[in-house]
Structure formats: structure tokens, C-alpha cells
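This entry is retained here.
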Amino acid sequence: MDDDLIIEILEVGPFFVNCYLVADAETKEGFIIDPGWAPELIIEFAGRRGLKIDKIVITHGHADHIAALDEVRRHFGATVYIGEKDAGMLTDPEANLSRLADGQFTVAAAERVLREGDKMSAGRFEFTVLETPGHSPGSISLFGHGVVFTGDALFLGSNGRTDFASSSLETLVDSIKKKLFTLPEDTVVFPGHGPDTTIEQERDFNPFVE
């Protein structure tokens, strides 16, 4: 991972979501990934680091990853990006599973949808969108500069839940094998929950992906 790439992790909300702030250390330009709960914390932290946030990336449309989205978006005037097949979840309280979180809610629609191969930049650093469905139909990951942000597709020693109506274990395992396990083995995995890991670690030892 490049020393000039800032990656800050804030664990937020009752489901301990990893909210990431990704930025160029030189220009301070960057984006936020998955602003779950605690908008004040996210905003204050970005301000303290002097980060210029103009984009917010949602890895998937479940409630625990979007609860603070509207407040954070308004503060920064940021453009919101989400995988094409999850876009409708932002405005649908049943689809975003907010009934399982803190009461049903919706957030404003995303301005942009993301597809396989799209790029997301943080100053001089560019990341590639990988479509990694299974946990949700439109789950995405971002890969670049020795790291991959996997949302709830892949965790340390585990993978995302697939017991929701729109989930598929077969699809998720296929995504992990074809999109994530084919990345360089020393790629650092930054998941939506829990500690980071590596592609090599998960490819060799993850018991849920055979």
C-alpha cells in the first residue's frame, strides 16, 4: 500500500460497520465508503484530517451501511455512488432491511450507479469497481494500490450473510472466487465489518469458500 494513500477506519453503529475515509495524503482529496451510523463522528474526523470529500461510495444498500448517508452527503455536498442493482434499496425500507436495524427508513437516491470496471478516484489514486454480488444483488468492491474494500462480501475467516430474500450463497461464493481470490495474494482486504485480512489468508484458510 502506498504511503501517500490515507485509509482511516471508523467503526460505527450497533452492527460495528467499518466506515472508510480514503484520500490522497498530498491533495487531501478523497471519498467515504459506507457511512453507517454516527454522522457527527464521520464529519468531525474528516474535518480534523482536513480531507476534501466529494464522493461517497456505498458497497451495498443495507441499512447498517447507509444510515448516516443523508447527513454526511449534505455536509460535504458529495456525490453518492452505488452498485447499479442496489440503487433501489436506498429508497425502499423493505429492501434495505432497515426494519432489522433501528426502524424503517430510507435515504435519498444515489446520483450515480457503478458497474464493473468503473473507476473511483481519490486525488492521484484510482480504484476499480468489481461487481461482487451475493450478499446483495448489487454489491461492489473497490480494488487498487494493494487493497480491496469488499463491503460484506468477504471477511476475515467468513463471508457475508446470504439468508436474506435477495441474497444468494452460490452467487457470493462465485464472486469471491472469480473476482476477489484472483487478485494478487498480498492484497489487503478491508471488509465491511471486523479486522482486515489478505487475499492469500482468505484463499488458503477461509472455511466458507471452498
Summary: Residues 169-180 form the longest helix (12 residues). The CA atoms of residues 64 and 170 lie 23 Å apart. Helices lie at 39-48, 69-76, 169-180, 199-205. The mean pLDDT is 96.
